[in-house]
Amino acid sequence: MKIDGNGLEVLGDAECLALMQTMPIGRVVFTEQALPAVQPVNFVPDGNSVVIRTAPGSKLAAATRGAIVAFETDDYDPETGTGWSVTAIGQARVVRDPAELARLSRLPLQPWSPEPKDHFIRIPCDRLTGRRIIPVTPGSDGRAA
After folding, report:
1. For the chain, domain boundaries
2. Which residue, of 1, 73, 81, 95, is most buried by count of CB atoms within 10 Å of its CB?
3. How far is residue 111 CA from its own chain's centroid?
4. Do the beta carbons of residue 36 and residue 27 sit within 8 Å?
5. Phi-psi bin for 69: left (phi > 0), alpha (psi -120 to 50), beta?
6. What would the pLDDT profile of 39-65 be if each residue is shown by its tens digit?
7. Is the pLDDT score of 5 beyond 90?
8. Can you state the percent helix, strand and coil of the chain, rounding each to 5?
9. Comparing C-alpha atoms, which of 6, 23, 8, 30 is closest to residue 133?
10. What is the pTM of this model?
11. How many CB atoms lie within 10 A of CB 99?
């Protein structure tokens, strides 16, 4: 087990992808009018990519077209003090291939709003990083139990 300078477990790519499979919601980080922007999205992992579904004219669709973006998802249990965070960075691209669009439309990725959202954006996990919070055993780190 590799531990970073903050005492967090460093996760490998396979574990990052597996953890992403367990969460339905993440955040896309992109640039909007030269400023950082974050938008929560529902998503589905697809191979070594993240796929989100949005409306073609949406702000997110316009901002991410061909842009390098970050995608993040995480989980935290306040009772145990455990959790993890995974971040993927890649160039977002609009899916245009009809066969791929047909396949993606069958994935378990339903829009949050009732309006049609048949616009798919793929974010390849070109750079994937993850960290896990390791539970602290009382007294193991010098702190009082």
Report:
1. 9-133
2. 73
3. 16
4. no
5. beta
6. 999 899 999 999 998 877 777 777 677
7. no
8. 15, 45, 40
9. 8
10. 0.85
11. 7
Q: Using alpha carbons only, how large is the chain's radius of gyration in Å?
A: 17
The listed CATH number (3.40.190.10, 3.40.630.10, 2.30.110.10, 3.20.20.150) that belongs to domain 9-133:
2.30.110.10
Written as one letter, the residue type at 78 is P
SS3 label, residue 88: strand
The answer to whether 73 touches 23, Cβ cutoff 8 Å, is yes
Q: Which structure tokens are listed for 65?
A: 């077209």
CB distance 120 to 101 below 8 Å: yes
- Phi and psi of 77, rounded to 5°? -110, 105
Residue 48 contacts residue 17 (beta carbons within 8 Å): yes
